[in-house]
């Protein structure tokens, strides 16, 4: 499979339910990052300000992922993420179409990443 060239192309290749969940996250990120450029980086959709990747997302066989492009952000929210029933590593937060990420959590993750990146 060749890498998608745009967010729209990437989402079009996802199963419908997953594509809808990822589109919802994309819409949230677009609202939170109106000054960001939509890019494809590391073969997944991302949002970049200047040279800094601030957030990204991807779909996989069994789940979706949110990526802050920093190993320092998600650990700051580890207890909340676990309490909400999501799995995470320092660099990735897993969710499913049936259980999407709360937009208020995404807003705080984005704000933390922007602060870290200085943008």
Q: Which SSEs are present, and which pair or pack?
A:
Layout: H1 7-12, H2 16-32, E1 37-41, E2 44-49, E3 52-59, E4 64-67, H3 78-83, E5 88-89, E6 92-95, H4 103-117
Antiparallel strand pairs: 1-2, 2-3, 3-4, 4-6, 5-6
Helix pairs in contact: 2-4
Your description of this structure?
The chain has 119 residues and is of the alpha+beta class. The protein has one domain: Aspartate Aminotransferase, domain 1 (Alpha-Beta Complex). It contains 4 helices and 6 strands. It has a 6-stranded antiparallel beta sheet with strand order 1-2-3-4-6-5. Strand 1 (37-41) and strand 2 (44-49) form a beta hairpin.
Mean pLDDT: 95
Which structural category fits the helices and strands?
alpha+beta
Kindly provide the name of the CATH class: Alpha Beta
Reported CATH architecture: Alpha-Beta Complex
Which runs of at least 5 residues are low in confidence (pLDDT < 50)? Answer: none
- Number of helical regions: 4
The count of domains is 1
- Determine the N-to-C terminus distance: 34 Å
Tell me about the largest β-sheet: 6 strands, antiparallel
Under CATH, the topology can be stated as Aspartate Aminotransferase, domain 1
Strand content: 15-25%
Radius of gyration: 13 Å
Helix content: 25-40%
């Amino acid at each position: 499979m060749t890498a998608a060239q745009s967010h729209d192309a990437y989402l079009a290749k996802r199963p419908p339910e997953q594509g809808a969940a990822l589109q919802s996250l994309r819409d949230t990120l677009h609202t939170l990052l109106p000054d960001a450029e939509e890019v494809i980086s590391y073969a997944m959709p991302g949002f970049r300000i200047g040279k800094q990747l601030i957030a990204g997302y991807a779909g996989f066989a069994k789940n979706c992922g949110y990526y802050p492009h920093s190993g320092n952000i998600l650990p700051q929210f580890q207890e909340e993420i676990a309490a909400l029933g999501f799995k995470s590593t320092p660099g990735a937060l897993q969710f499913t179409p049936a259980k999407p990420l709360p937009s208020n959590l995404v807003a705080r993750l984005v704000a933390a990443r922007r602060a870290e990146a200085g943008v």
